[in-house]
Amino acid sequence: MAQSFKDGSIVEVAIVGAGIIGTATAYFLSKAGISVALFDKGRVAGEQSSRNWGAVRQQRREPAELPIMIESNRIWQCLERELEADLDWQQQGLMRVAYDDKTLSWGEDWLPTARDHGLDTSVLTPKQVGDLLPHFNWEACKGAVFTSTDGCAEPEKVAPAFAAAAARLGAQVNDHCAVTAIETKNGRASGVYTEKGFVAADVVLCSSGVWTSRLLKPLGHRHPSLWIKGTAAQTEPAGIEMRKLVAWGKAAHRQRPDGSLTLAANEDGYHDLMLDSLRHGASFIKLAWQNKDLLRFSAGKPLLQDLKG
Ligand SMILES: Cc1cc2nc3c(=O)[nH]c(=O)nc-3n(C[C@H](O)[C@H](O)[C@H](O)COP(=O)(O)OP(=O)(O)OC[C@H]3O[C@@H](n4cnc5c(N)ncnc54)[C@H](O)[C@@H]3O)c2cc1C
Fold first, then answer.
1. What kind of architecture, by CATH, is found in domain 66-153+229-267?
2. Of 6, 157, 183, 291, which is least surrounded by CB within 10 A?
3. Where are the domains of the chain?
4. Sequence-ordered list of residues with C-beta below 8 angstroms from that of 134, at least 6 positions apart, any chain
5. Whose CA is nearest to atom 41 of ligand 1?
6. Among protein residues, the one whose CA lies closest to atom 13 of ligand 1
7. Sign of the torsion angle spanned by Cα atoms 184, 185, 190, 194
8. Do domains 9-54+156-219 and 66-153+229-267 have the same CATH topology?
């Protein structure tokens, strides 16, 4: 995948980070005829973008983000053809099963937002849940919120497919090549220093995920972000066919075409306390308080590593 570049190359846009954001941006810019160099310190999609659940979700989005998710869903429906790649795209809907009244009413409260945006979301009775999920202990549930146009895809495949398609259009894709600093001139980004040399650019896009605040700090930009760990695991192929994307109580699953499942702990998040927790914590107090039942904190190795510098 990696293409070499000459020290001193010039591109219109340098992109730091080849996750889903960096690779998709590289593709669409290249398609528009803009010259791009994409860099990742590791492999393409080596972090969040290959380890997530793979849900393409419109359900229960904030009203402000719903239009962009509806547009995104429309793009997803043509993406395999556009990228000439198999992405395991499945559009079977997202079902969120509720085992208590609070969860169900939280789904019901969202229905007017869905209706306002013309989104096909409904609340199912336990019997309707059973019809769609015969293998589940549906009698124990209170119902479910179901958005039939939600979908899922294989994260391991999507960002690499974007990167390959961008490369076919002429983008320089440089994996295993960290950006060590961003150069600025007259208050504007003017290029990136990388492990393999300097590349001048009119625009630098930082799509470096959890590392973004560290990359921007030397430029004097504060970008508050803290790391929250989520859990996703993969099973062997299950002997039964299940619906592709279901969140039930404290867990969720996505079934792949080979029958194996991505299993995830639904909503729980773990935060390792670090020096950044002190630097950026104030920006997240309200959010942490709203989610206090779901968040766990620990002080261990990451804090020690941080203190050691
Ligand atoms: C457990 C879990 C489940 C999730 N489930 C879903 C889901 O179902 N649906 C959904 O839409 N989203 C989900 N998400 C969120 C989604 O995965 C992320 O929003 C998305 O992957 C972020 O993509 P990104 O490109 O911004 O960042 P990343 O994928 O984190 O990519 C950033 C890249 O930048 C690179 N990088 C960093 N610093 C440098 C540097 N200095 N030089 C070069 N490269 C650098 C990194 O190596 C990395 O590859 C989930 C996330 C988690 C953790």
1. 2-Layer Sandwich (3.30)
2. 6
3. 9-54+156-219, 66-153+229-267, 271-308
4. none
5. 179
6. 52
7. negative
8. no
What number does the ligand 1 atom closest to the CA of 49 have? 21
Counting from 1 in the atom list of ligand 1, the atom nearest the Cα of 210 is 30
| Sign of torsion over alpha carbons 165, 171, 172, 177 | negative
Give the pLDDT confidence of 172-221 residue by residue, as tens digits: 999 999 999 999 999 999 999 999 999 999 999 999 999 999 899 999 99
Q: Which element (helix H / strand E) includes 167?
A: helix 155-168
Global pTM value: 0.93
Topology adopted by domain 9-54+156-219: FAD/NAD(P)-binding domain (3.50.50)
Q: What is the pLDDT of residues 43-96, one digit of tens each?
A: 999 999 999 999 999 999 999 999 999 999 999 999 999 999 999 999 999 999
> Residue 208 C-alpha to ligand 1 middle, in angstroms?
8
Residue ranges lining ligand 1, Cβ < 6 Å: 16-22, 39-42, 46-49, 52-55, 178-179, 207-209, 211, 215, 230, 232
User: Which residue among 15, 47, 79, 174 has the greatest number of ligand 1 atoms within 8 angstroms of its CB, and so is best to mutate?
Assistant: 47
